[in-house]
Write a structure and sequence with these properties.
The protein is of the alpha/beta class. The protein has 11 helices and 15 strands. An 8-stranded parallel β-barrel has the order 3-4-5-6-7-8-9-10, surrounded by 5 helices. A 5-stranded mixed sheet has the order 11-12-13-14-15. Strand 5, helix 3 and strand 6 form a beta-alpha-beta unit.
């Protein structure tokens, strides 16, 4: 596997370092400036690092200028078909430009974009999508993976010949296996940071599964330097799913991990309600340490799982066992479980009354 230490700054974010930035794309038109800025602030609050905004026309350029003045996150301009919009976005102060191979004109127009990027020291993402490859490549390559690789070779060549190497590459498909295979191959060839994700993945359930499968597989092979989870769902959902993927593969640590059983006929107590209540209580709170909380529906696996948790509960009929640091703490009435768990949780919150 070809490795690279190349790091590229996108505003205050770094692509190619130890931290893997989470990206999403604003889903309304940027001409609605107040709505866009409100979304950006909300996304920053839940852990988003970079946002992308589509710039399809001059009205969008005007809205982009206004958003850039107040955005708390770096902005990537998504450009298609008109190279002049890329230049205007850079001149407006955008932090990165995303283009697709072959769809902003001939090489002379690409050169104009490159010269503008160099002058303003703005990086580019060359986004190769299986569904929007240059038409001239399709008859030459029956294998879409090879077609995507060739599209990347051509486009990066334009930039490299003009001495520009602040490049991030992405290779995406709506097929999980195609996405994995093309990124594996591309990582052997191109010495640039990679933006990864499964495109056109579907709604919250389908899209989460496909992105988790594709992104996790690549991250576990150390392919990928920034991620975007594509969902037919609000931007916040994309960021939350991305965070959970990074946490699951050990590339980002959560403030709290809740272990809860899937429940069965032995379960006593509303495990789902307990988990939701804990999450609601933790929302917006800072913790003294990384917490692991076990919420188990019976005593079959409960004590064993709770042994590795900071605290937890194993529910029983009428009464349940509370554990702390792997040790049985006490038996409580089921009606008192949540009050007891909240008291235990309060010990770890920085803004708790006893802090």
């Amino acid at each position: 596997m070809r490795d690279t230490s190349l790091q590229i700054k996108v505003g205050n974010a770094v692509i190619g370092g130890r931290h893997i930035p989470i990206q999403t794309m604003i889903k309304n038109r940027v001409t609605d400036v107040d709505r866009t800025l409100g979304k950006i602030e909300a996304l920053a609050a839940i852990g988003c690092d970079i946002v992308r905004i589509t710039v399809p026309d001059m009205a969008a350029v005007q809205g982009l200028r206004r958003v850039l003045k107040h955005s708390v996150l770096p902005i990537v301009a998504d450009i298609h078909f008109d190279y002049r919009l890329a230049i205007l976005a850079v001149e407006a102060g955008v932090h990165k430009v995303r283009i697709n191979p072959g769809n902003i004109g001939d090489e002379s127009k690409v050169h104009k974009v490159i010269d503008c990027l160099k002058e303003h020291r703005v990086p580019v993402r060359i986004g190769i999508n299986g569904g929007s490859l240059p038409k001239r490549l399709k008859p030459r390559f029956r294998d879409p993976v090879q077609a995507m690789i060739e599209a990347a070779r051509e486009e990066t060549g334009y930039f490299e010949r003009r001495g520009f190497r602040d490049i991030i590459l992405s290779f995406k498909s709506s097929s999980v296996m195609e996405t994995i295979n093309v990124n594996r191959l591309a990582r052997q060839i191109f010495p640039y940071p990679f933006h990864i994700g499964v495109t056109e993945a579907g709604d919250l359930i389908d899209g989460t599964v496909k992105n988790a499968a594709g992104i996790a597989a690549l991250l576990l092979e150390y392919v990928g330097n920034t991620i975007r989870v594509s969902l037919t769902a609000p931007e916040e959902e994309e960021v939350i799913v991305a965070k959970k993927i990074l946490e699951a593969v050990g590339r980002r640590e959560s403030s709290c991990e809740i272990i809860s059983c899937p429940t069965c006929g032995r379960t006593d107590g509303d495990i789902g309600l307990m988990v939701r209540s804990i999450k609601d209580t933790l929302a917006g709170k800072a913790l003294r340490k990384h917490l692991k909380i076990a919420v188990m529906g019976c005593v079959v696996n409960g004590p064993g799982e709770a042994e590795h948790a900071d605290f937890g509960v194993a529910c029983g009929k009428g009464k349940s066992i509370l554990f702390k640091n792997g040790t049985k703490l006490k038996v409580v009435q089921n009606d008192d479980i949540m009050d007891e768990l909240m008291l235990m949780l309060d010990e770890y919150t920085i803004d708790s009354p006893g802090a």
